[in-house]
Write a structure and sequence with these properties.
Helix content: 10-25%
Low-confidence stretches: 150-158
CATH superfamily: PCu(A)C copper chaperone
CATH architecture: Sandwich
Bound molecules: copper (II) ion
CATH topology: Immunoglobulin-like
Order of helices and strands: HHEEEEEEEEEEH
Structural class: alpha+beta
Radius of gyration: 19 Å
Largest sheet: 10 strands, mixed
Amino acid sequence: MFKQLTSGLLLGLFLASPVFSGTAADDIQVMDPWAREVPPGLTTSAGFLTLHNKGSKEHKLVAAESPATGTVELHTHINDNGVMRMRPVKDIPVAAGGKTELKPGGYHLMLMMLKKPLKSGEKMPITLQFEDGSKKEIQAEVRHFSMEKGMKHMKMDH
Ligand SMILES: [Cu+2]
């Protein structure tokens, strides 16, 4: 009886407490957005960035688009019996107060049907869309990416 009363009271307090939070686009800070350079003839590349959620509730990246591409998909990598394969995902979650990294070997923006080659040093505009419909435009820097450099990055993260 006492237990029930206590949890009821706690739940009441929790529900009554005001949540100060803006839109997802207000809460999310985008850090270090970049896209992989591709040679002429290749029309597919990948974009990477870190999403930092400064808000008090979870947010989700649900879509992305860019005038430089025909389409952008949200992808992740899965380890399928030792083989890394890409899979489209519905959304990319970012916990309240947390960070989600899009990086080689993990979550990424799949940049498809590029309208022209991506050259190192260029900026590529990408619009991110979140679960509440709010949007954020970012400028991804095009960079040359070698696997060696990528491996170093991955090691540093552990
Ligand atoms: Cu992909």
